Amino acid sequence: MTENMLSFFVALFGALVGSFLNVVIVRLPEEGASLVFPASHCPACKKNISWYDNIPLLSFLFLRGRCRQCGVRISWRYPLVEAAMAILSLALYQHFGLGLLYPIYFLFCATLLVVIFIDIQHQIIPDLISLPGIALGFVLSWVNPFLTWQDASLGILLGAGSFYLVICFYYLFTRRQGMGFGDVNLLAMIGAFLGWQALPFVIFGSSVLGVLVGIWPMLKQGKGGKTVIPYGPFLASAALLYLFFRQDILLFFVRFILKAN
Length: 261
Description:
Layout: H1 3-27, H2 58-62, H3 77-96, H4 101-122, H5 127-140, H6 149-174, H7 181-194, H8 199-221, H9 232-260
């Protein structure tokens, strides 16, 4: 099989998984909802979607972004998630090959993608995602050549501990809860998969992204520091940046420290 053909199938696999992730994003926040039943259906007219209308990316284009049955516009989130997972799958293949790291971090990327879109829409990070993710990241660290189980353990402890202290100090000085415990669990999960070494960049990078992106809603809502902005997408985005640009990031920090000294 040629390299181009293999890359195509890797991206196609990502898009297919992305189609399932859309189901997870919609149904997981709904109490008691099943990820399997009922079959995929239009949220407006409730009619089942045929297999030929459920092909990742292509069906959205053929249908021109509308339901075949009722004509209601389909959310852009569906092709966006499918495309994002296809790109992440291809990036993982090009970065790690098809060895052991590919399936480990494919799961990690898929989880982060679900977190991003659920947190944007509902401003929650379900424990049903992050808590099993913490355990899975730790278990996989025993076979993960990217880090050791000690790195993962410290990543969990320092990830959860650092944000828990932030929550406590913020509440102590403002008497308001600024960050949810979902963010604490998410950072612990990131630490489990990437190790404690990733935490400084993830915390710093997510803060920078939060400030840059948060300026617009703060101005629009006119609430200043009381503006509610989901923080999970920034943590997840910073974690993805570290995953793919780890060497460049660590080299930058080393040079920065050497120059400072």
